[in-house]
Amino acid sequence: MKKLKILLIAMSLCFSSISWAQDNISGIVKDVLDNPLPGVNILVKGSSVGSATDFDGNFKIKAKEGDVLMFSYIGYKTLEVTYKGGKTLNVTLKEDSAQLDEIVIIGYGSVKKSDLTGSVNSIGTKTIQQTNKVDAVSALQGQAAGVVIQRTDNKPGSGGFNIRIRGASTINTSDSGGFNPGQNPLFIVDGIFVDDISFLNPADINRMDILKDASATAVYGSRGSNGVVLIETKRGKNGKLRIEYSNYAGFKQAYHMPSLYNGQEYVQFIKDVAVGRQFASGNINYRASDVNLASDNIFDAEELNNVANGVSTDWVDLIVKNGFQSNHTLGLSGGNDKTTYSAGLAYTKDEGNVEGEDYTRYNLRSSLNSDLTNWLNLSISNYITTAIQNQGSLEAFRSAVRLKPIGLPYNDDGSLRFFPTNKETQITNPILDTKNDTRETKFLQFIGDIALKIKPTKGLTITSKFSPNLKYERYGEFRGLLTKSVSGNASNRRAVVQNRNYFSYSWDNIFNYKFEKADHALDITAVMSRFLERSEYYNNQVRNFTTDDFTFYNLGAGLDIRDVSSGFSKQTLESYTGRINYNFLDKYLFTVTGRYDGASILAADNKWAFFPSAAFAWKIIEEDFMHDQQVFSNAKLRLSYGQTGNNGQGGGLAPLSSQSLLGADATNLGDSSVSTAYITGIANKDLSWERTTEVNIGFDYGFLDNKISGSIDLYNRKNTDIIFGKELPSLTGFYSIFENIGESTNQGIEISLNTTNIDNGDLRWTTNFNFASNKNELTKLAKDQDIFFNVGGTSLIHRVGEPIGAIFDYEYAGIWQLDEAAEAATYDQLPGQVKVTDVDGSGDITSADRKVIGQVTPKWTGGFTSTLNYKNFDFSFMINTSQGAKMRSNFHSNYAWGWQEEPNRTFNGYNVNYWTPENQSNDWNQPGNPGPWGHAIQYKDISFTKVGYITLGYQIPSTILDKFKVSKFRIYATVQNPFVFTNYDGWDPENAGRNQYGAAFMSRTFMTGVNLSF
User: Fold this and answer.
1) What is the pTM of this model?
2) Which helix H or strand E contains 820, and what residues bound it?
3) Fewer Cβ atoms within 10 Å of its own Cβ: the N or the C terminal residue of the chain?
């Protein structure tokens, strides 16, 4: 027995020594793009031995040969690796599309993406940074179904965008770079309400969540009827200090430039204008050979000499240059289990394609999140932006296109000529405008928040959050002696200074309770919120300066005070919100939301309103009958109903606009001037909230282990009690009164499709596609009376049964040809003139022949992104399209007419295939002879497809980087906006309706950049 015990002890020691023969393994875990993954859990399968990666993806663990190591990370597929010996083990995890972006921000909280009941699109930092855009709005373009983004201004730093989510939810008649009905969505940056997001550096954004249906936006009640864009900037993460640096630099090139007449072509064009004027007077036998440029007083001796000498000045080419664009972003973050921190600094420079146009922006951000105790958390964040935008001359662009190519830019001594010809008295040398016209905007903006979070008991969290937004803006303008608007007259020198101070804050008190037991999960949120906004402005304009030296910095030097004015506005909003999320069996999801809002801007008896919503989602994929099938990897049905509101600001309502106010004036009593007061408007005590009621049904799907996934949404949105200024009879003494006058609907479909086409280790190819179609219709107006209005030369109408702000004008039907002279005469028209449709067949063209000929909003939009990774190389591109919109083209209105109705304004023009007796074209009317309906030809289809970017990158292998303790080093080259495919032949189809005064060229940018992490 004693020998047996000794043998058993020896055997035990032997087995123990074998079990203790473990290796110390170290390694790194990265994604398919070779980026390190922090926080990856590593477990020896079948044991309690585990570890996790640090901030740079490094890990250490003990294991013996044959052990199976399990690597798991949210958003990525779990990987099992059998350890076969060695001291190092490098692992690559692949994304799991079923879990990607699992946490979605929904307003005053967040949920798992799989538990969403509303319609929400999420765009992560990787997608945002991949676009390499200067502004955050451009980074959204083409990325989300149902989000239509129209760029209205190409000047750097302009922030000119119209953003519509699911169509127009209210009516308006304002010009925002080309009429576009509706309003922009509500932007919320780190919980702070902002008017726009142009102040943000896209590289600072962690994610954007777009709330689209009424169920998702109802938590914002009266502010959510146009959709909500929630933006979260980057925050600290648990782990050692991590430093990230990104940079790009390149040049911008103007392109898609319409062809203008050169000197020789211009002479022929002017002759054809003269012929057209003769045709218009009835002399249809007159020809270009009959034109005498000298005796007909068309050109003077100097101009004739220039023509004889072959002068051909390309004025546009003289002012166009390549603009430089660059961005530097430095960020650091880190922390531990108790406290995380983040900070960043960014610099952006964006030059335009004309001298004097540029934008410089500095961004500074910081955040701190700390668990002071196990029941008390403090978080603080700040985001500061200071920027300078120089618009340059608003006239140079337009003048360069208008000027005759037979003029000269320089005198014999090399100095700039003021007027390019002696006969020219209207359009000055645009080069002088670029050098003598200053329009500078400086602004400083601070947004921040401080929040205390208390956890008094299990499941209950109470958060009090204060979020201020402060913005100071100064605009300075000076028009010097050698600008077109001053034209050498010193008394017209003009200096303008405008100051605007803006302050707002949100104070939110949030109560959240979470409860889970067995098959039930409950998440209850209650919010008490107060919002205040106040703004003041000061405006001064002075003229008649003796010198240009002071620009706008010495208003006292001006002798003619033209304007001294100021203004102040203030409004408040108080809100009480409740939301319940209930999850049963992780299959059946219910959300109920209610918000009670009070707005100071509305009439006294109608300031408060309640906005409810409810939603249901069914995770079909979790049902027992789905477990054995091999087709679906995800299937979820969503149904929602909700109401949101609008306090009428989209229709023009401003603070106190619903009141009857007094204005100051003066009158004469005898020989004396006496101060008086007058009523400025009529109060409407019945004015109340606009309401948006929406039903949404959606289906989230996935096939083949989610290699194919996406969603389909159908919605029906109804707007009631639309606020708008109703015209009044002139005998009342007032122009209009704000009333709840209308109703409208938006119906549409949204489709998103994500595919993993190839994924075999070294090669991975993914694509993302989205499509949206929206039908907008105005269903009710006061007494069903049409509202006619004109924006930028486009004739528009609000009419029941038509889209909001439909185009209402004569329909272009071609050009009258010589063999149609007899028929044209019945309409008092001539060959060469624009023909329009005789809608009522009366044989006469009257206002009754006007009809709805199109809509200014697209009928459908789409986006497509493709990303290809091969080993350390990556290649991606993005395409977005907008189809079915129409607009009266301001470019064609100004530059294809040849100013034929004003003989002295013989401007240059667009080289269009116009009608002549020898060239009977249907493309354009005879110059000088448009006829009474010449404007009808200027309505153009502005559909387009743009390639947003093409990028090629290379990631330096980790085997090289590890020697220098560098986590990531990627270099890339990209071209922004390289191609546009459109039948629109003006400058840019996106802003075809905007005035050419202050316009800018469409450009593409060629750049290179680096992404570096330590």
Assistant:
1) 0.86
2) none
3) N
